[in-house]
Amino acid sequence: MSEALLVQEAGAAPVAAPASGARQFWLRLRAQRAAAVAAAVVLLLLLAALAAPLLAALAGQDPDTYHPDLVDSAAGGVPIGSFGGISADHWFGVEPQTGRDLFARVVYGARVSLGVAVAATVLQVAIGLVVGLAAALGNRWIDQVLSRITDINVALPLMVIALALLAIVPPSFPRPVLIALVIGGINWAGTSKIVRAQALALKSLDFVSAARLAGRGRWSIARRELLPSLAAPVITYAALLFPVNITVEAALSFLGVGIKPPTPSWGQMLTEADTWYQSAPTYLLIPAGLLFVTVLSLTVLGEGVRTALDPRAASRLRIGTGREERGERTKERAS
Amino acid sequence: MTGFLLRRLGGAVFVLLSLTVILYAVFYVAPGDVAQIACGPRCSPAQVAQVTEQLRLDDPVYTQYWHFLQGIVAGRDFSTGTGVEHCAAPCLGVSYQSDQQVMQLILTKLPVTGSLVIGAFALWILLGVGTGVLSAWRRGRITERVLTWLTLAGIATPVFVIGLLLIIIFCSTLQWLPSPTYVPFTEDPEQWAWGLLLPWVSLALIESAKYARLTRSSMLETLAEDHVRTFRAYGVGEPAIMRRHALRGAVAPVIALSALDFGSMFGGAVLTESLFGIPGIGRELVHAVKVVDLPVVVGMVLVTGFFVVLANAVADLLYALADRRVVLS
Amino acid sequence: MTTPLVQVEDLTIDFGTVRAVDGLSFTLEAGAALGVVGESGSGKSASASALLGLHRGTGARVTGTVRVAGTDVGTAGEAELRALRGAKAAMVFQDPLSSLDPYYTVGDQIAEVYRVHNSASRRAARARAVEVLDRVGIPDAARRARSRPHEFSGGMRQRALIAMALACEPRLIVADEPTTALDVTVQAQILDLLHELRRETGMGLLLVTHDVGVAAESVDDVLVMQHGRAVERGPVAEVLGAPRQPYTRELLASVPRIDEKRAAVPGPRAADPDAAPLLEAVDLRREFGRGARRVTAVDGVSLTVHAGETLGIVGESGSGKTTLGRMLVRLLDPTSGRLRYAGEEIGSFSEKAFLPHRRELQMVFQDPVASLNPRRSIGESVADPLRAAGESDETRIRDRVRELLERVGLDGSRYERYPHEFSGGQRQRIGIARALAAEPKLIVCDEPVSALDVTTQAQVIALLGELQRELGIGLVFIAHDLAVVRQVSDRVAVMRQGRIVEQGAVDEVYGSPQDPYTKQLLAAVPALDPAHAAARRATRSELAAA
Q1: To which protein family does this belong (chain B) (predicted)?
Q2: Is the minimum CB–CB distance between A23 and chain C shorter than 8 Å?
Q3: Is the N end or the C end of chain A the one with fewer CB atoms within 10 Å?
Q4: For chain A, what are the domain ranges?
């Protein structure tokens, strides 16, 4: 294609309408079937999380009411009825021992899981963007200091530090906020490294030199020339980080240092389910399955976003195309 | 080369030193009433005062930090109330709970975590690289699609979920395996291996997914490069191209990632250890966190950080050695 | 009548919806040399790849028949095709660095290819590798065979690739732009090597190139391609000397000639050498890196540029010409030396102090892809200097941009369009419009036409000349192509390893070069007249021996 473009010097109108970036992105994302399905699932989950009270109300339940009549206290609190007490009233059954409605707890749990992960991702991107840009645009000294700080950030083992931090913060501090802060604050080094490397590469391109020659200031160049081109790698990276953050939150809650009861969270349900899997397997399978589906959809979506934002990266992996183009475009090499 | 090693070493020391400052500030300064934490919630004011005295918590913060650092570099003495105990370098303090020296504690846990990591590591490299090579070889066919989805599923499954499922299937339902228990290798190698089998498999299943992806994408990237076209144009067959040229391109990234994972796993196998009840560093840390045993927490984070920094340096070095094009600087 | 070595009939290649080659037919007799010449997109490389069946499994659709050394490439089985590749017909690719595996030694790679086609022991294969490396003129071949490609220079790598091609004694060598990535002196060496090998072994050569001069020096017959079709074919002297087709004529007219004096330029030219220079550099130096890895890119360069004149700077890769150009417009700070502009010492100015003059020194860049921000409309890019100058009236900005775009020969209404919608030459025009928007006194053009096809090249050069006459600005024209520099410059400076080895009026330097390096450089440029090729080869070997 682009080879054909190069041929047309003066004359003949080139093809391709000026499709806006966002529009093109959607078209490319939609063209990937797996990613489109994943996007739909993610959207559904987000809606369910946002509308948790509504959904619970629709089911006629809430996440905190005990139903002692629905569990067999003689058998140690096993839900009465098949499949963990699934019924018209309790769509996912009830929690062992307490008899709380599982559907309500799961949708409220989605709120916590997704909310924490979104906040953590936003934080990671924000810190990474600021640190990375400042390192790339600042002088040698600033770059040195920020790069060392990034090194230190890399050396912080996420799970371990998160565990340790959660131990000393007073329980009065709201846990979901704390977890988002901890994940975001410990794990931004990747973003800042990507941003720094990209910004440095962009800075050496001729169009940035041209902007300097035009007499534009440093910040104006950062905003107009660099940021738009940084969006693609940063969005891609964020899309890949998001599912990781969900897993980390679930893991912390699973270890009993994350979200504290009575706030429902998937990871914490799994801890409790550990002891019930024989008598009430649905109690284990439902949060485990949801966690799996969520992370899988987000990962597939992340891959899709990557492909949609950088089709070259994807086509690079296809073999045998673009040869002629590349060979002939680098016609002459200069110093 | 020597210059690279020295610079790298300097950087590592700087990062670790910064880590001690941060950890000290966050865990000993920020909480405020360290004496109360050390003594426990039910301590009387008199007891708290005694602990303050013993731990010299009245000293200025920088003096306390200095002593902490001194302990790591040269060792230090602790008053135990009844006498003085010497803690040899690298001294990370003494547990509030068990009065055991943290370094001793870590050293007793290290072989346990080591057993877990080394076995899992061998498995996941085999499985991951094998899967990656197979899907690159069968690219564009059904095998690759199936493997790609399996790999994605592996990436999407948290280790504690797969671990739970494996326990339920093999230990409870089928009863093929005993519940995982840790038996030291020196005691009974066979029991050691059987006890660790499920943890190894769970970790390996999850970790290998990453390696499968990396191997596959590195190989495909190499296959798209010009030099592969050269060898095709000279009549070299596809098997030889895969074996000699494509796989060679995956070596450096896989080795580098292995070093990183191997290092961070020493402190980070927290989930696996907790789930399977393996008494390693990770489980000890979770326990220490729950009872707010500050010296143990700080000590373990520091040791983990040390492994991560070490792994980073080793990864860079191995990458450069494997790639040969990279100039060490 | 024997069967020809290569027989191509009605070859058509489609990449998706793009037809790269359209009904191409030609033959090549054993031992003969055919040059396939064309601009980018003419389908010449795709045709060359088809000779070895390299389009198989790539999604390209190939129809027609291709017979090479008795093999029907289109219908041959995998094994038969592999037996052809490398053994009967071998390919030499353009970029010698990426065409070799970075992980293995050069000797091992040649040995691998040899063992595919000959049942030889490892040891014998390695010995063969050393033999062919020695044959292509790699000094100390036994030792160098154990080096990896990145330890070789560009010319050495291309020699190694040719050695690989020779390893199995093929009857045909297909060389796809074999010298395009190389400096002109190295290019001459490689072409001489190919010529010599052909004479010695009697193998056929199919040389694909965009450079008519390269073909003129190396082949017997030439085939001119355009848009996937053969335009003209015949003996090289005939086609280049008396082209029958209009396209061939146009192509030849666009090729800058080193032996042709600059056409007399009408209109006022600055010319007054006694006037104070616009820009003066004195002993300019620039170093990169620190400590043991310090490199001096520009090493004490002094030059002047007057208003209305063009100073050409020629040099091969690594000569420091780009670094020098960037220092002249203050994109790079000199390590030492003085830079005077309009009577002021600007070399030591801070960015802020320099701001009043900032827009008076502009640059046109080499790479038409990298010099425009792909995410901003071209109008916005051109408007940059206007806005930075404080203009805020949108209509006035739009009007001025339209005027500038039309001035450089583009449709002024395409303000909102994005760079990818323009061709390479058009993008270069946009770059010129952006430089003009700043109302500069001096423009440094850094290889402004090296990424363009010759016909486009000629148009852009003509535009630059016109603008200079109209506006009386000073131009610094940096290029590696000696012929292009001769066409545009009043004075010329020859750079080598960060220094200017010779400087003077353009006809003097080209007519009677004083410095041995300048002589070597000039002798290396391929001439369009094939009759002179032999004589020039002789001159080169004399110069090399000297």
Answers
A1: Belongs to the binding-protein-dependent transport system permease family.
A2: no
A3: N
A4: 39-314
Chain C: residue whose CA lies nearest to A217: C388
Q: Which residues of A touch C480 (CB under 8 A)?
A: 332, 334-335
Residues 223 through 282 of chain A touching chain C, CB cutoff 8 Å: 224-225, 228-229
How far off is chain C from B237, nearest CA to CA, in Å?
7
> Residue C310 has what pLDDT?
93
> What are the tens digits of pLDDT across the range B279-300?
988 888 888 888 888 888 888 8
| Facing residue for A243 by CB, picked from B14, B26, B156 | B156
Instruction: Give A-chain residues touching C94 at CB under 8 angstroms.
Output: 327, 330
* Chain C, nearest residue to A320 by Cα: C58
Let me know if A260 is exposed, middle or buried by CB neighbors in 10 A (0-12, 13-18, 19+): middle
What span, in angstroms and rounded, lies between the C-alpha atoms of C521 and C313? 13
Q: Give the residue carrying structure tokens 């190894």.
A: B200
| DSSP for B6-23, written as a single string | HHHHHHHHHHHHHHHHHH
Q: What is the largest CA-CA distance in chain B?
A: 86
- Coil, helix or strand at residue B271: helix
- Mean pLDDT calculated for residue range C31-60: 90
- The neighbours of chain B, by the rule of 3 or more Cβ pairs under 8 Å, are A, C
pLDDT, tens only, A32-89: 888 888 889 989 888 888 887 777 777 667 777 777 676 676 666 676 666 666 666 6
Provide the pLDDT for residue B241: 92
Distance from the Cα of C91 to chain A's closest Cα (Å) equals 14
| Confidence band of C475 (pLDDT split at 50, 70, 90) | very high
Residues in chain A closer than 8 A to B300 (CB atoms): 160, 164
In angstroms, the CA C308 to CA C305 distance is 9
pLDDT tens for C5-25 read 999 999 999 988 889 999 999
Q: Which of residues 249-308 of B touch A (CB under 8 A)?
A: 264, 267-268, 270-271, 274, 285-286, 288-290, 292, 294, 297-298, 300-301, 304-305, 308
| C-alpha span between B95 and B289 (Å, rounded) | 12
| Shortest Cα distance, chain B CAs vs residue C38, angstroms | 22
pLDDT mean over A273-278 = 71
Say if residues C176 and C94 touch (Cβ distance below 8 Å): yes
Would you say residue C395 has pLDDT above 50?
Answer: yes
Indicate the pLDDT class of residue B51, thresholds 50, 70 and 90.
Answer: confident
Cis check: omega of the bond before A262, within 30 degrees of 0: yes
**ipTM beyond 0.90?**
no
- Could you tell me the fold of the domain covering A39-314? MetI-like fold (1.10.3720)
Contact C141, C88 (CB under 8 A): no
Check the CA dihedral C352-C357-C358-C359 and report its sign: positive
User: Smallest CA–CA separation between B123 and chain C, in Å?
Assistant: 27
**Minimum CA–CA partner of C102 in chain B:** B325
Q: Residue A171, Cβ neighbours under 10 Å: how many?
A: 9
Q: How many angstroms separate the CA of residue A206 from the nearest CA in chain B?
A: 26
Q: Determine the pLDDT at residue C269.
A: 52
Q: Strand pairing partners for C338?
A: C282
Question: Given this model, what pLDDT does residue C244 score?
Answer: 93
For residue A278, count CB atoms less than 10 angstroms from its CB and return exposed for 0-12, middle for 13-18, buried for 19 or more.
exposed
CB atoms within 10 A of CB C121: 9
Q: Give the distance, in angstroms, between the CA of residue A314 and the centroid of all CA atoms in the same chain.
A: 20
Residue contact A291–B224, C-beta within 8 A? no
Q: Which of C109, C116, C150 sits opposite B325 (nearest CB)?
A: C150
Nearest to A146 by CA among A203, A222, A199: A199
